[in-house]
Design a protein that fits this description.
Elements: E1 2-9, E2 12-15, E3 20-22, E4 25-28, H1 30-37, E5 43-51, E6 57-59, E7 62-66, E8 69-71, E9 92-98, E10 100-106, E11 124-125, H2 128-133, E12 140-148, H3 154-174, E13 183-188, E14 204-213, E15 236-238, H4 240-244, H5 259-263, H6 266-274, E16 280-289, H7 293-310, E17 315-319, H8 326-339, E18 343-348, E19 374-376, E20 383-386, E21 391-393, E22 409-412
Parallel strand pairs: 1-9, 2-4, 6-21, 10-12, 14-16, 14-17, 17-18, 18-19
Antiparallel strand pairs: 1-13, 3-4, 5-12, 6-11, 7-10, 8-9, 15-16, 20-22
Helix pairs in contact: 7-8
């Protein structure tokens, strides 16, 4: 399967009478985009704002971030099952608007669904230390501020927000179709039955990817895998190209994973880079993190058996989603793999740690002797002072205590969207003095 990402680098975004890309500028017809999104009757109003790197601006109540992407060939579908019809992705060509992002904000008057303890939710700062720490202070952002229609409940609203973000992503990227890309990235991985001669002796390595945690209640109608919320899925094989091409999105609420990060999955890219040289990238198993022991055992056993007896894996990389509880499923799956002779390495943010644990270093909530190769991506409790801003995008919470949200504030990095990532794309590092 071969996927080509045709990348256009966006240097600016402006509102205009026609949606188009020209000389690195993305022009957006705001009225046309609003009309498209208001076709979903769960939304009564959609405001759209723009934010640029270096602007003294703070975006509030951020739920998800998506990179604009759209298929370039007629007959292909964008974000199948959510925006387009059911159709396999991961092959052909896709237009990518690099350095641009679609930001989904909760724009209701009530407090949003969020894992943040602050009523103003997770934020993006477009300048200063917050922008340096996070990914999305460096992108040109199209922010969707959507109001629910009367009678629409929280879960219906959240599903509508996610679909609005995906629709916007595809709408914007379609403007880049037919334009010569600034660069192209090609991802090609043949079936195991077509293994190239000479690399059959390389260790076969797979990636076991948790895409959903059941510590939060799944949102009916929210697209997670091919347009469906898959809380009851069993471990399933998937081609890595499908991950890059819109098959998987980040469920709400999410801890340190956004759809943008899934679209640019750092660990999958690293496995591709080493494929045919140091290892043979044998594929991906997607799974969930259940909330009870019996189901943890079920998914762990099934994932390990797929890895061993179907893919013939010699090694496996594992990550988790959500908070601390999913560590147990990840670790138990790694343990079962090790017991079957598959060497494992796990990469994790220590979401199960308490803030009081930080002075002792990172901690885990499991202890399994076989699981002894752990890449720590840190703890999320370091606090960062953020300067005052000139502009707020989003609906501030009137009941919020403490300093004004547009003033100088202090935030733990876990609440700065994009500052940490469960999938390995964070740019932060820890230094002990």
């Amino acid at each position: 399967m071969r996927l080509e990402l045709n990348i256009l680098t966006i240097r600016d975004i402006q509102f205009a009478g026609k949606t188009a890309v020209s000389d690195g500028v993305l022009y957006v017809n705001r009225g046309q985009l609003q009309a498209l999104l208001l076709e979903d009757r769960r939304l009564s109003q959609v405001d759209i704002e723009l934010a640029h790197p270096g602007e003294k601006c703070r975006i509030l109540k951020v739920l998800d971030v998506i990179e604009p992407r759209a298929k370039t060939s007629d007959g292909d579908e964008d974000f199948p099952g959510a925006v387009g019809g059911q159709y396999p992705v991961g092959k052909g060509s896709t237009c990518v608007l690099r350095s641009a992002a679609v930001v989904i904000s909760d724009y209701r008057k009530k407090r949003e669904i969020s894992t943040s303890s602050d009523p103003n939710g997770e934020i993006i700062d477009m300048f200063g230390p917050g922008a340096e720490a996070g990914t999305y202070g460096k992108t040109h952002n199209v922010i969707l501020l959507s109001t629910p229609a009367d009678g629409v409940n929280t879960q219906e609203y959240m599903a509508a927000l996610k679909i609005a973000g995906l629709k916007t992503s595809a709408y914007l990227a379609k403007a880049g179709k037919g334009i010569t890309p600034d660069e192209a990235e090609v991802f090609q991985l043949p079936p195991l039955t077509e293994m190239a001669e000479g690399i059959e002796k390389l260790p076969k390595v797979i990636y076991i990817f948790q895409i959903l945690t059941l510590q939060f209640e799944p949102i009916p109608g929210e697209p997670v895998l091919y347009g469906k919320n898959v809380h009851d899925i069993v471990p399933t094989l998937i081609h890595p190209n499908e991950i890059f091409d819109g098959a998987v999105t980040s469920p709400l609420p999410a801890l340190n994973v956004q759809t943008f990060q899934i679209q640019n999955h750092a660990i999958i890219k690293e496995l591709y880079k080493r494929h045919g040289k140091e290892l043979y990238f044998a594929g991906i198993i997607i799974t969930t993190a259940p909330n009870n022991v019996a189901d943890i055992e079920r998914v762990s056993n099934m994932a390990a058996n797929l890895a061993k007896y179907i893919l013939g894996a010699d090694g496996a990389v594992l990550t988790k989603t959500g908070g601390g509880a999913p560590e147990l499923t990840m670790a138990r799956t790694a343990q079962r793999c090790e017991q079957l002779g598959i060497k494992t390495a796990i990469a994790m943010l220590h979401m199960g740690a308490d803030i009081s644990d930080t002075k002792y270093g990172a901690t885990t909530i499991f202890s399994m002797p076989e699981v002894d190769a752990i890449v720590s991506m840190g703890v999320p409790f370091m606090e960062l002072p953020l300067p005052a801003v000139d502009r707020i995008i989003g609906r501030p919470d009137a009941s919020s205590e403490g300093p004004p949200i547009d003033g100088e504030i202090v935030r733990a990095i876990r609440w700065i969207k994009g500052s940490q990532c469960q999938l390995g794309s964070s740019s932060l590092k820890a230094v002990r003095y």
